[in-house]
Amino acid sequence: MGSETTGGAVVTGRANRLVTTGCLTLLIVLITVLGIPVSWLWYRHWHDGNVNSERRERARAAIEKQARARAGATDRALDASGTTDVDALTGVVWQHSKAPVITYDASRREFTATAASAAHYDAKAILPGGGSGRVTGCFVFTFTRHPGQGWTSQVSERDDATCRPSTQIGHRVRLALTRISGMDADDLTPDGIQNALDPTQRRSFDVNKVVPEGDTTTVFVLVSSSHAGTCQCYRFTRPVPDGAGRGPATAVPASSC
User: Fold this and answer.
1) Of the four, 79, 86, 192, 223, which is 20 to 30 A from 245 by CA?
2) Are residues 71 and 148 in the same domain?
3) If you average pLDDT over every residue of the chain, what do you get?
4) Which residues contact 104 (CB under 8 A, 6 or more apart)?
5) pLDDT reading at 250 higher than 50
């Protein structure tokens, strides 16, 4: 009887050891199987993060370089313009800086232009088709003419909030271009244009003057942002073919309305 009990205990012990060994083996296999994809996912996350950071910095460096290039091109164009007319010079600054808001300080002989820039880059991601990343920059350009010298420029980068009024005015100018281009020639009157641009009377647009000249109509509009104190006068030019019909308009900032 005692030997049977001892033999049973031995068998039970061996069985327990086999079960324990089997469980440990299964656990090791599970850890290995699950650990490989987890490690791969962690590595991909780390690697993609580094790659995206490098691409983001390159994109930021590109828009900063572009801003400096635009400032230099504007300097050269101002020097080559050979004019002191503020309205003409405002057009030169806009043509090269593409800034929606441009102001002029006569006492300092200085233009200030505010414009936002953006650049896109391919963003890596674990899933296919990770999409596009985007960086933005807000730049304030100053162009100053010193007595007896040419034009010089400075470029400073500001926080995005500085450019929001300028960006909003740029959007509204594009909206105004679309609406003025689509108007019938007979409707190109101060009231007609005001109603087309600002049907809800939010005072985002203020039509100051409409000047018909031959086969074109020039419209001076003060475009305002939602931010108090920020506005820009724009000169819209609309062809009027044969005195009727529609035509594509152009827009250039003006020094005043």
Assistant:
1) 223
2) yes
3) 83
4) 86, 89, 90, 110, 111, 112, 255
5) yes
